[in-house]
């Protein structure tokens, strides 16, 4: 939850608080990440009025009409003033009595509430929608869709749910709801042609529950369901709104809703695309350390949206066998996978095999095309045709591609997606300087972890065996350092060592240290063996 920090002034001290206000659904107030009670119902309604009119002065007479309509009590003015004081202290705890504070100030004879987008979800929503419209106007439909999706996630129900006690308040909140409807309809119009109709189903269902009779919203829901391949659900959604309109209002569905229904019946909606691939190997549950490398990778990934990018962002990790390149790449890939709307592809190119029998570029292209939804019987025969099909399938997409065990730049270069919105993570035992020189790749050397990280890796691997952890903690520094040094602090070798210690309770650290001193661990041999053990 992002929020702005303000200083609340009291007689004794200045206390900083982070404030977050929500009106896109039930009214909620958060201070320092904790929800606080916004007071009695009328006080809550007054606060909702200020939030709904953020940045616009509201006179006392106008506020009275919003709270009580045409039948206010004689004490209405005094009640307004009392609630304003209570709200000021609610938003800024410790505020001196009668102090105006930072948010709710006098503006002539009226009150003016001011808050930024970091504090008020309605302001965040409006700013994000405005940015989405700018993206679409500039031809950046994908970016616009992403921004719309971000804005729609802020909604949780009817604006200021249940707090409308007058016609004026009802109209105010209904106007805010209409902004939600407009945004979700515009987003659906972008999502369906891009084969992302399913992405809009959650906000559309929410909008349909808020706008029970809003035909354009229900038409968009019917269209998105059909585009997502849910034809039966689309027909059911149409039937529900039709029965509601005829049964409760006595009217037939309008032209827009009927047109959406006909498109479902004739299957003229954009068909559902092949599901986005999700091919990343599972993350290592006992991953530890690598804070520096992860920070570097995150910094590089942050440049993906740079305007000067004409191709995918490429990062090539290199290091000796067993140093943990693949584990690091997979762990980072899981961290950023959600940033790639069109999915993740992963492929082991087997370029580390001693027989040199890794995948050819043509074989790799066939596998990647299959992952992108091309049936086996439709795979092009020739290399050039596969390359062309792959470029077409990846053009303009946001794909995360993990290419493991790469032999050289020539093996991997044809596999890069044809999109500046994509990212490629490459692992290799060699430094792929050619990718940096000709493809703008970022090179990251992965070295063995330091002694402290290596010790922590052992502890985490042996966490299920408390006696082993205690043995590590009690071991003489020299003896344990000797073991770590004999293993080269290589994560693969340490993992094998931990497995051996877990499986043989009679084996002591001293015995392992002695064995390794005579016969150091060989991670390459350990990797190739069907029954690896330290010293093999």
Automatic annotation (TrEMBL):
Database matches in PROSITE patterns: OMPR_PHOB (PS51755)
Top-level lineage group: Bacteria
Pfam families associated with the record: BTAD (PF03704), Trans_reg_C (PF00486)
Biological processes per GO annotation: phosphorelay signal transduction system; regulation of DNA-templated transcription
Species lineage: Bacteria, Bacillati, Actinomycetota, Actinomycetes, Micromonosporales
SUPFAM superfamilies given in the database record: C-terminal effector domain of the bipartite response regulators, P-loop containing nucleoside triphosphate hydrolases, TPR-like
Entry's family note: Belongs to the AfsR/DnrI/RedD regulatory family.
GO molecular function: DNA binding
UniProt keyword annotation of Glycosyltransferase present: no
Domain (OmpR/PhoB-type): residue spans on this chain: 10-115
Record protein name field: OmpR/PhoB-type domain-containing protein
Entry annotated with the keyword Transcription regulation: yes
InterPro entries, A to Z: AfsR-DnrI-RedD_regulator (IPR051677), BTAD (IPR005158), OmpR/PhoB-type_DNA-bd (IPR001867), P-loop_NTPase (IPR027417), Sig_transdc_resp-reg_C-effctor (IPR016032), TPR-like_helical_dom_sf (IPR011990), WH-like_DNA-bd_sf (IPR036388)
